[in-house]
Amino acid sequence: MLAKLGSIFLYLIPIILMIGLIPFIKNDYLLAAIFASCILALLSYKREKHDVLVLCLGFVLMTFFEYVFVSTGEETFARETFLGVMPLWLPFLWGYSIVSMKRCLRILDT
Fold first, then answer.
1. What's the domain range around 87?
2. I need a surface site. Which of 49, 54, 57, 80 has the fewest CB within 10 A?
């Protein structure tokens, strides 16, 4: 069980680092480029079955649901560079987070 937790933590490190960059990099376009570069590097280093499909689905679906949620007025962003309601880097973060969740569930399933 401890080995599984260690493996899961390794998949969470990039997400923690990406979230940690948000307050320090104010340019949403630069941050989105950094996130995209990190995601490409991570998926090039270790690609699992259906990672790209899950990344694309996470990017598109979470963008849609985030847009709907923000449109209700319950959540707002100070940085609105994507669709006028959310930061440009957010779909990249969501997309990779979904990939990480898929990988973590696979680890827990074994």
1. 2-109
2. 49
CA distance 22 to 9: 20
> Helix, strand or coil for residue 109?
helix
CB 88 within 8 A of CB 29: yes
With residues binned 3-state (H G I as helix, E B as strand, rest as coil), the percentages for the chain, rounded to 5, are 70, 0, 25
The pTM (predicted TM-score) of the whole model is: 0.90
DSSP string, 31-74: HHHHHHHHHHHHHHHS--TTHHHHHHHHHHHHHHHHHHHHHTTS
What phi, psi does 68 have (nearest 5°)? -60, -45
User: How many domains is the chain partitioned into structurally?
Assistant: 1
The answer to whether the CB of 86 falls within 8 A of the CB of 77 is yes
Q: Can you say how many angstroms the Cα of residue 4 is from the centroid of all Cα atoms in its chain?
A: 21
Q: Name the 3-class secondary structure at 65.
A: helix
